[in-house]
Amino acid sequence: MAADDGIEDEVFEDQHLNVLTSENHKNSTPSPTGYRGYKPPQEVLNLAESDGTLSETGQEVHKTILLGDSGVGKTSLLVKFDTGKFQQGNFAATVGIGFTNKVVTVDDCKVKLQIWDTAGQERFRSITHAYYRDAHALLLLYDVTNKTSFDNIRAWLTEIREYAKDDVVIMLIGNKCDCNSERLIRREDGDRLAREYNVAFMETSAKMGLNVDLAFMSIARELNYRQNGNYDNNRFRVQDYVREQTYAPSCTNCNV
Amino acid sequence: MTEKFTYYLELSKNPVRFEPVNQLTNVFFDDSNKQVFAVRSGGVMGVVVKGPSEESKSLNFRMDDGGPVISIKISLDQKVLAVQRSTNSVEFMNFKGSNLDNKYSQSCKKNATLLGFVWSYINEVALVTDHGVELYSVIPEKGTLKHLKSISVTVQWFVWCPTNKIALLASSHGSQLLPVIFKPGSVSKMPKVEGDPGRMILERDITLGTLYGTAAVLILRHQNAPQASEVHIHLLNGSSSAPIKRHVLRLGLSGRFAINIVDDLILVHHQASRSSQVFDINLQGENDGTVTYHKAVAPAKSIQPTCLEIPGLLEPQKHACELYSADWVVFQPNIVIDAKLGCLWCIHLILPELCRQIPDLSVCTQLVLNRMNGKEVLLKLLLDRIELPEPPLQQLQSSFDCINILYRKWIESELQIQTASPAGAQLPSKIVFQPRVLITQADMYSRVFQKLDLANKLQKLEWVLISYITSLTQNDIPTELSLNEMLVNTLVKQEKNSALVQFLQYGVVSDSKPLACRLLSLGFIELALDMFARLGATEEIIEILLDQEQVLPALQLAGDKETPRKFLQVAQNTGNATLFHSTVLALRSNPHFKESFLKDERLRVYLNHYASLFPNSVNTSK
Amino acid sequence: MSAEAETNDVEPGAAPESMLIISESSENLQNMSSSLDEIKKMQPDNQDENINNVDPDDYDDISCNTIATGDDYIKDNDWLGKSKHIFVLSSAGKPIYSRYGNEDKFASYFGVMQALVSFVQADNDSLKSIHVGNTKFVFLFKEPLILVSISKTGESVSQLTAQLNYVFNEIVSMLTLSRLSQIYQQRRNYDLRRLLAGVERLIDSLLDFSDSEPSFTLGAVKCLPLAASIRDTISSAIVQSCSKIKDLVFAILLANNNLITLVRMKKYYIHPADLHLIFNLVRASESLKSAESWTPLCLPRFDSGGFLYGHVSYLSEDCQACLLLLTVDREAFFTLSEAKQKIVEKLRRANCLEGINESLNVREETCAETGFPELRHYLYKCKSTAQFYQPGVGAPYMSDYGRLLTLYRRAHQRLHSTSRPLKLLYEKSSDEVLLAWDTKGFELYVVLEPSTDKSATIALIGKLLTWIKKQEDRLFHLNAPTF
């Protein structure tokens, strides 16, 4: 892990740590929703009654892993996709692997995504490797304001090639593209790298919600598409799809 | 102290001058009236009576020729002159103005030889013969005498003491000494003076006097050994008990001596060495159970030389008087007469000079305490000694003890008078004890301590104060505030705080509210609080504690008279929320104040303050 | 005052068996057991690839760029004003952690610290502490790390050492001790920070946590007050849902830094110090709320040589109690995920979630509310179960809990001083009366109104112990359920 990366991580988290500790300490109400008479959402109840599997749809669960250096915004991206909220100030590094189920509809089809949000830290890598093998799709993130996280992408891709299935769907994501003033990696750098490794690419902003749904939806669409047979052209399809749908950040200095 | 030659005895500056003894003139001295009689040619040429001082009016008169005068004395009321010219009778003449008239006489008993006579009381005269004493009442207007009483006893010579009205009758060459005492209209024997049996005593070796209010017989004893003469003192304590030898003065000399008594001190003049020694029987000496042996309190010194002014041809000339001359005659108590020179002096003591000769301060103090007008001398003496580079602390301590023993007695007697006499009642018969020298704390403060303080001799002041206060304490005399304050200030100025703490703790400095306040003002809060606590001054303590923002300890002392607002306000002003909490809690749990929280609307503001400090606390409810 | 306490056969909160290892106050964290091997040996086929054998050289050491010491912290008043600094460095003097500021910026001071420790060590001695004025420099050398605390807080050397031990254990819990040693054996100059990315946040949290809580000082945990019936129902729901799962060692349910229940594999116990690390992990990791998590975790007192694997999740969105299922099986995620769903379902049906929420939402009664107005606050630790209880913080400490903690720490130190331990401490100051009492069965620390006299204090403590005894099955976890 790079020193730069570490600093970034720290700065980001330090800002909110005090808020966290003091809240934990003072606030005796652990959850704003933990009130009397609370009814959990239907899907939670369904989940409870269905023994935790999504078998009622009878469809395959698509395992998707979020990868990338610590602090690039993997969890933020997932939370934004899952809940539509950006966890400003409530964020902390992922411990081990986080597990989220999400059902999305693509092409009038329900696709179940089982999303594994991994911790970026090096020490967790041995445990995450074990899950590469089963993964159907990988979202590999870097932070456009953090050069090391971009430089490490090649190492990540090498690792993926080693541990993951050959036909895994890979998408390279340059996150935090809203931070124009701090940007260090141009969009075209990311694009060039993606082309080199023949993987899909887009820039996202978990904060602004830019391209977040698109990233997951295009993965879902691809996985759904493959499941339904048409395997041969998949790689090109997902990339094409992405290119068609991507909203480029509206800025003048990112050399798009 | 530079040793300049000093004298502690002096002769009166203005002696009584009279015509000196010569072929024509005889001089007589009457020690009852202290009058000198210059009798020219048996009185025919005139008699001049002077005394007791040079200033007193002299008396001049003439007498008829009746032969040489043996003795001449004027009655105590100065109205009758008595003259002895023979060995068996005395003539009396009444004064009429400055002249005499109405001469009458009295003979003594047949076969008796008249040794002398004395005026014992007004109009009472005693004739002393070799057969005893005959007491007569003189009736001047009738020109007669009336026999009152006689005592039959063999007498060889006698000595008269006019102050005590005692005559000492000597027989068997002075080995038998019988005092007789005169009362108005009466004379009676007293127990014999116990002398050494068979030992002769000359008349000139006997001195009668008064020592510290007691009649005394002083007998000069010439011992066989050289330089070993002694004076034996027999005290005549009342008529019933026998006069006992109580004191012996060791003169350390031999030869001719003369004795005076000045201010209860015995002066022994020694002619050969031309010096005088001073003795005080009240000082301690070697004691064998009955007799105390004394040494001179100071080295023997000559009387201060003196001069007489003699009219010269052109201007007065000075004539240096010969001291200790063979022409000196000494009379009691303090009279020296040089008949050849025609001078009568009184001997005076120069007390400060005497003190200077006594190195031991403690002894010196004891001596001065018994002197008339000793107070000034003693205070000055103390200050002088203290100001020495190395003050004699040990002696100072016992000196203070001597002073305070008297002080204590005086306080007790004052107290007795105050407590024993109800308003308007007669003073009790008991005589007030009034020491000759009374040195009170106020005296010490203004004459000694304050001077040291002004001179900023703090270390010295501290020692002396402690020594003095210790002595007061030992004599159960409460120390006055001024001294305690001074000690505290002295210690504080020297930053001797631990000493201060100890003095307070061990009660060297006694507690008082003013002193506690003083401590407070000096910033010794804890010490002040302790003192107030010992004095049980709760109200003061509460105020101080509140001033110190110690609300809770103050509250614990508070009775039901205090108002809760005072405590709450202080607690609130401190800005210490914990303190405010405890104050509210303590007040509410105190039965004295519980009620006022419900009743007193003025407390509402404090409860509101509490609620703002501690929202949702149980104490805010109600 | 013993009358009240001794008449009860058992002190309040005592239980026949504890799920926690009974801890003595001065933590001796040297003794680390190796429970993992035992459990794993029970497995017939253990194909576990040893994750500890990763060669550190496999990773590019790209973080070794030293940063020029531009700004000097020694001149920074803000930095200097901190009441406590904690540093961690390798035995070679490489910076690993600093509580405040960037550790790279005072590399030279790390050098001095390393030199001090090794200089003393050269004489077969060890540097424990240096005292300068009211500042204590406390050193803990735990191969291969050096931990240093520079404190003006008034805590004792042993308390500061205990805290450093916790920091060391936090690092071990992320890496295991075996791996930590191995790394440095292979490369003495290794920059451990690349492996500890994100751990500094846990250490920060741990330090804040232990500075703001009495549980670390006491070596005990606090339970969430619950009716005994609810707690038992929760425990049995866990037991029932997990009984068939092999290799599950501990199931821990906690909320708001309070323990709700702990179910354990027979014969195995968890040490309070390990539990504190778990509490800290949950406390510091807000991300656990967003998803079910699966993480390796080493419990140093349980076994410093290997990882347990933890399924970590909050019970539900409407009940913010965190459930940790700790297993030795690294493949057990889905099994445990399933078990968790069952547990939640059972708890929901038995209204236990509501029970937990109620307890979480109710502010703990203060002493004044309980009926002890003179009693400001207290800590009661039952030694046999390593659990403690403290009432709600009332006036006057509502906004100054730190002062209370300082008092407790000082009293604790007096009771557990190695040179002159006290059984009973009674201290009266103008601010408060402090009483600390160490008996065979319990430790009690009481802060009272300054006006309370000795006899009133004794009477109050008698009443208090009776009250705790009455409340014990609500305040303490008296059972020690097993799978």
Written account of the structure:
Chain C: Residues 246-345 form the FUZ/MON1/HPS1 second Longin domain. Chain C: Residues 1-27 are annotated as: Disordered. Chain C: Belongs to the MON1/SAND family. The complex is a heterotrimer of chains A (256), B (622) and C (483). Chain A has 256 residues and is an alpha/beta fold. Chain A contains nine helices and six strands. The longest helix of chain A has 24 residues, at 3-26. Mean pLDDT of chain A is 73; it is low at 1-57 and 250-256. Chain B is built from 16 helices and 32 strands. The model of chain B has no long low-confidence stretch (mean pLDDT 85). Among the domains of chain B are: 157-302, 7 Propeller (Methylamine Dehydrogenase, Chain H), CATH 2.130.10; 353-417 and 432-478; 539-620, no CATH class. The longest helix of chain B is centred in the middle third of the chain and has 28 residues, at 393-420. Chain C is globular and about 60 Å long. Chain C has a six-stranded mixed sheet with strand order 6-13-12-16-15-14, with helices on both faces. In chain C, strands 2-1-5-4-3 form a five-stranded antiparallel sheet. In chain C, a hairpin with a 4-residue loop joins β12 (375-382) and β13 (387-389). The two termini of chain C are 41 Å apart. The chains are: A alpha/beta (256), B alpha+beta (622), C alpha+beta (483). Chains A and C meet through α1, α2, α3, β2 and α4 of A and α7, α10, β9, β10 and β11 of C. β2 of chain A pairs antiparallel with β9 of chain C.
Topology readout:
The complex is a heterotrimer of chains A (256), B (622) and C (483).
Chain A: H1 3-26, H2 42-49, E1 61-68, H3 74-83, E2 97-106, E3 109-118, H4 125-132, E4 137-143, H5 147-151, H6 153-163, E5 169-175, H7 187-197, E6 200-203, H8 212-227, H9 234-245
Parallel strand pairs in A: 1-3, 1-4, 4-5, 5-6
Antiparallel strand pairs in A: 2-3
Helix pairs in contact in A: 8-9
Chain B: E1 9-11, E2 16-17, E3 25-30, E4 35-40, E5 46-50, E6 59-61, E7 71-74, E8 80-84, E9 89-96, E10 99-107, E11 114-121, E12 124-129, E13 132-139, E14 144-152, E15 157-161, E16 166-171, E17 176-183, E18 186-189, E19 206-211, E20 214-221, E21 230-236, E22 244-250, E23 257-262, E24 265-270, E25 275-279, E26 286-287, E27 292-294, E28 307-310, E29 317-320, E30 328-331, E31 335-338, E32 343-349, H1 351-356, H2 361-369, H3 374-386, H4 393-420, H5 441-454, H6 458-474, H7 481-493, H8 497-505, H9 513-522, H10 525-534, H11 538-547, H12 551-557, H13 564-574, H14 577-589, H15 591-599, H16 604-613
Parallel strand pairs in B: 22-27
Antiparallel strand pairs in B: 1-32, 2-32, 3-4, 4-5, 5-6, 7-8, 8-9, 9-10, 11-12, 12-13, 13-14, 15-16, 16-17, 17-18, 19-20, 20-21, 21-22, 23-24, 24-25, 26-27, 28-29, 30-31, 31-32
Helix pairs in contact in B: 2-3, 2-4, 3-5, 4-6, 5-7, 6-7, 7-9, 9-10, 10-11, 11-12, 12-13, 13-14
Chain C: H1 2-7, H2 35-41, H3 77-80, E1 84-90, E2 95-98, H4 107-121, E3 129-132, E4 135-142, E5 145-151, H5 157-175, H6 177-186, H7 199-211, H8 215-218, E6 221-222, H9 228-242, E7 248-255, E8 258-264, H10 272-284, E9 292-297, E10 308-316, E11 319-327, H11 333-349, H12 352-361, H13 367-370, E12 375-382, E13 387-389, H14 401-416, E14 424-428, E15 433-438, E16 442-448, H15 454-475
Parallel strand pairs in C: 6-13
Antiparallel strand pairs in C: 1-2, 1-5, 3-4, 4-5, 7-8, 7-11, 9-10, 10-11, 12-13, 12-16, 14-15, 15-16
Helix pairs in contact in C: 5-7, 7-10, 9-11
Domain Regulator of MON1-CCZ1 complex N-terminal (chain B): 27-144
Domain Mic1 (chain B): 371-587
GO biological process, one term (chain B): regulation of autophagy
